[in-house]
Amino acid sequence: MTQLSVIAIDAMGGDKGAEVIVPAVSGMLLQEPGLSVMLVGAEQQLTALLAEQGSLDRDRIEVVPATQVVAMDEPPADAMRKKKDSSMRVALDLVRSGRADACVSAGNTGALMATARYVLKTLPGIDRPAIISAIPAKGGHTHMLDLGANAECSARQLMQFAIMGTVVAADIHDLERPRVGLLNIGTEEIKGNETIRLAGQMLTGSDLNYIGFVEGYDIMSGRVDVVVTDGFTGNVSLKTMEGLARMLFETAREESRASWFRRAGALAAAPIFRALGRRLDPRRYNGASLVGLNGIVIKSHGGADAVAFQNAVRTALVEAQKGVPTQIGELLEKQAILEQAN
Amino acid sequence: MTQLSVIAIDAMGGDKGAEVIVPAVSGMLLQEPGLSVMLVGAEQQLTALLAEQGSLDRDRIEVVPATQVVAMDEPPADAMRKKKDSSMRVALDLVRSGRADACVSAGNTGALMATARYVLKTLPGIDRPAIISAIPAKGGHTHMLDLGANAECSARQLMQFAIMGTVVAADIHDLERPRVGLLNIGTEEIKGNETIRLAGQMLTGSDLNYIGFVEGYDIMSGRVDVVVTDGFTGNVSLKTMEGLARMLFETAREESRASWFRRAGALAAAPIFRALGRRLDPRRYNGASLVGLNGIVIKSHGGADAVAFQNAVRTALVEAQKGVPTQIGELLEKQAILEQAN
User: Fold this and answer.
1) Total CB pairs under 8 A between chain A and B
2) Is A66 helix (H, G, I), strand (E, B) or coil?
3) What tens digit of pLDDT does each residue of A143-172 get?
4) Taking a contact as any Cβ pair under 8 Å apart, which residues of chain B between 221 and 250 contact chain A?
5) Residue A223 Cα, gap to closest chain B Cα (Å)
6) In chain A, what residues touch B192 (CB-CB under 8 Å)?
7) With an 8 Å Cβ cutoff, are A243 and B192 in contact?
8) Whether A287 contacts chain B with CB within 8 A
């Protein structure tokens, strides 16, 4: 018999809420025999949507009622104070009580981060949680963190990010010793600011597979598996990629329409453009992890469609099966012992 | 009669030095009747290369001897101390003495920045110079600064960058009131760190066309003409673009070779790929300005070919014709008066 992992789903979060999430999750139950879900939200709506999904293994679906929904633009403090029965909060409570092994939400990122910290607390040895996601790179993926939770970071925090990134990259991509790089504006030791240089020294003395400073183009070069940076730089870099990809696809579309000849060319080259599109498809990379907490929390993009949301649930499933928070705790402890020995 | 602008060229800088630079400059003299050049470097080599260029208006070319060359990997401090007769240093001296209106170098960036600061000094009211360049954006270009000269910046410096960026964008692209955005990780007032928020307040109170916080994808969205950020974030963001563009073109090439059918498709779509390539061609964007100095200094990429180097010289020519440093000085003074009045 397969060991079941229970994933709590904030079924009301995201731009389209349950209408997208219920069919997405129902589809996944057929593909993943090890998955069991708790759908959290408006009971009647969820039950009605489930009834529309055809034959389902109802033993692996539980509807957990929650009467409130956190709005996408609601200030995190308001969400925490006024929405104690929100689908987001109840899903996080299910992780804390141990009834669920992980949770997934497509809701408001700021509210999810604040509520998750409050409900689950950070792991011992972690100052603040970070956001990590896979990024397309030559020959595969890179994991980058922090993507925006911490606008300013100490060297100690960057060291913690490196540990968390190592665990996530190893678990999600089955890597033995993920190569860790520290994002900087040059590869010489004197480059960057004091925080970066100090973090570099700490990483050099650590047990991680640290390869040194890396630059912006290394995020996608395939030279490194984990890119460590502060949340300001990580967020700007990620959004720079989004902006460039968008501009290129728009330009390609315009150029393809410039003449009959071009239109025919674009048609002939459609498989190539599709392959490029797949390479960058944000749906494939959907599902950022909030790492550093006593529990697994996955953030799906608010505008995620069914395919994208399923990828977020898949990330939750892998992290639950591998026990990411426990592994992070172990690696932190190993590092602390190493530091004491020095 | 055309007013001549004299550009001093570090003819020995860059990966290939005079072999690329002399033919590039010779070609430009034919296109630009307002250009006069001082080629600085090994006299014999330069004279010999000029003799190979066919008919030239020798009245607009002067060879200025310099016996040393700054190596591409030489530490800036060494270059300044030991290479007082380098082609880079002599070219900068020509700007200081007023014999040249601007200079262009494809040499070592760190050495150029350090030597330029020492020789030319910063403008009154500027704490430190910055590096600015045009970046491809939807419908045109964006100018972004700082691209790596200052890993850490104060709010006051970001304000100075906004003023310098406004002048450069207005002059290079003939814009009346360039839209200025401050790069942040969200557009709400509470986002980012204290420095950014303070800079945002200063910009709101200024006379510039400040549109508020912008995010990574706005660099290319066409929403803004000048993107202001610290040198760490700017450098990472620029190199992220380079990395993504490189990965996409490599992927397109691989995908195009995957089958006979794909190869035919790629051939048919060649004009579209060429148009995309032109849009991102780093040669078109070659020529970053070191702004904030008492003089015009343009940095060409070390690996620039003739076309790319010519674009750097063209930037120098436009900045010389418009008098960028004088304009920056005027705008700084206007801002200082405005601040005193408040």
Assistant:
1) 175
2) coil
3) 999 999 999 999 999 999 999 999 999 998
4) 221, 229, 231-233, 235-248, 250
5) 12
6) 151, 232
7) no
8) no
- Looking at chain A, the whole-number percentage of residues with pLDDT higher than 70 is 99
Q: Which residue has the higher pLDDT, A272 or B222?
A: B222
- Interface check for A217 against chain B (CB to CB < 8 A): the answer is yes
Using an 8 Å Cβ cutoff, are A15 and A72 in contact? yes
**A59 secondary structure, DSSP code:** G
Q: How far apart (Å, rounded) are the C-alpha atoms in residues A144 and A163?
A: 12
A265 in contact with B, Cβ within 8 Å: yes
Element (H, E) at A290: strand A288-291
Q: Are B7 and B313 in contact (CB under 8 A)?
A: yes
Backbone angles phi and psi of B334, in degrees to 5: -60, -45
A97-126: b (≥16 Cβ within 10 Å) or e: eeebbbbbbbbbbbbbbbbbbebbebbebb
pLDDT of residue A253: 80
Question: Counting Cβ atoms within 10 Å, is residue A3 exposed (0-12), middle (13-18) or buried (19+)?
Answer: exposed
Instruction: Please give the full DSSP string across A251-274, using - where no structure is assigned.
Output: HHHHHHTSSHHHHHHHHHTHHHHH
Three-state DSSP class for residue A55: coil
Order the strands of the B179-183 sheet from edge to edge.
B61-65, B35-41, B5-10, B102-105, B297-299, B288-291, B130-137, B140-145, B226-228, B179-183, B209-214
Query: Residue A310, CB half-sphere, CA atoms under 13 Å: how many?
Result: 14
Per-residue pLDDT tens over the stretch B63-86: 999 999 999 989 999 999 999 999
Confidence of residue A2 (pLDDT cuts 50, 70, 90): low
Find the mean pLDDT for residues B107-119. 95
Select the residue from A154, A217, A227 to test the B interface by mutation, using most B Cβ atoms within 10 A.
A217
pLDDT recorded at residue B210: 97
Contact between A217 and B236 using a beta-carbon 8 Å cutoff: no
ipTM of the complex: 0.89
Residue position matching structure tokens 């100075």: B160
Contact flag A255-B272 (C-beta cutoff 8 Å): yes
Domain ranges of chain A: 1-125+292-322, 127-284
Picking from A240, A242, A285 by the largest number of B CB atoms within 10 A of its own CB, the best residue to mutate is: A240
| Separation CA A333–CA A125 (nearest Å) | 8
B248/A236 Cβ within 8 A: no
Position B2 pLDDT exceeds 70: no
Query: Which runs of consecutive H residues, i.e. helices, occur in chain A?
Result: 18-31, 43-51, 76-82, 87-96, 109-120, 155-173, 194-204, 231-256, 260-268, 270-280, 306-322, 324-341
Nearest CB to B272; choose among A136, A246, A256: A256
Round to whole Å and give the CA distance between B155 and B198: 6
A 291-320 residues with CB < 8 A to B: none
Class of domain A1-125+292-322: alpha beta
CATH of B127-284, one of 3.40.718.10, 3.40.220.10, 3.40.50.10950, 3.90.1150.10: 3.40.718.10
B260 touches chain A (CB under 8 A): no
| Chain B residues near residue A239 by CB distance under 8 angstroms | 215-217
Of A55-64, A263-272, B279-288, the poorest mean pLDDT is in A263-272
Q: What is the pLDDT of residue B119?
A: 97
Say if residue A192's pLDDT is above 90. no
pLDDT at B334 over 80: yes
Tens-place pLDDT, residues B22-31: 999 999 999 9
Interface of B with A in 32-91 (CB under 8 A): none
Q: Among candidates A33, A20, A13, which has minimal Cα distance to A110?
A: A13
